[in-house]
Predict the structure.
Amino acid sequence: MVDNRFAKRLFNFYKNRWLKKIIMIHITRRETFNAAHRLYCHEWDDEKNLQVFGKCSNPQWHGHNYTLFVTVRGYIDDTTGFVLNMKDLSDIIKTRVIEKLDHKNINLEVDFMKGKIPSAENVAKAIWEQLKQPIREHGGELYRVKLIETENNYVEYFGE
Ligand code: NI
């Protein structure tokens, strides 16, 4: 009987360990910032820029209230019950992204956007590059960056 109980525990131990390996959880943190930009291609004159980019090409800038959703996936830590501490995730996003973008002119002031047209697509991709490594260092894997630019438009980047 004793041996049987031991065998059962051993079986459960390996079963749980195996289950943990295949259960993946996604967690999402929301942050907001506002920033100014102008969509503009240097090879074109103002008229052509206005034609292609519309109001977002206004020469004297304009702003958006952006909402950012950062989704991380990973395995639940036995001790904390977390994939990644939300406070740590929030700190990473704030330091690497929000503080650099919030109340800034994306064309002129944001180091990781230098030389890029500040479309929502390019901003989302650049945010991905800012976050991928530090999130990995905290035990998670960046899964999605979702950036809402207006109530009708948002973009999503999955790192592909
Ligand atoms: Ni715009």
